[in-house]
# Entry
Amino acid sequence: MGESEPTADSEEDTEATEADESASETTTSTSEVAESTEPATSPTPAPTSEPPSLGSRILITWAGLTAVTVIGGFLSAALSGPVGFIVYLATSLAVVAVLLYNVNELVKDWVAASQAGSTAD
# Structure
């Protein structure tokens, strides 16, 4: 009885300490990589004078809207009462977000194409 057996709390503390140490090692290695390489820049597509493809943007928008509405419909049907109504409202907001995002992307592509076309002249 003189020996104390490890308790569940001490095992959890040990696991938490090991997880913290591994997280700090990951952070250190990530910062080392960031210091050793050039600053990361997002690759920007080369401007072209061709207008963007409207058909592909419509297809992407349709797929996004279909996914959002189907998932939202299933969730709101599975949940009833006020929670289902809130999911329905969130689905409506997500549909508007998908539409606005895709219109924004299409406009950005059109503007980039028109600017590239005007500089090529």
Summary: Helices lie at 8-36, 54-78, 82-120. Residues 82-120 form the longest helix (39 residues). Confidence is low (pLDDT under 50) at residues 22-36.
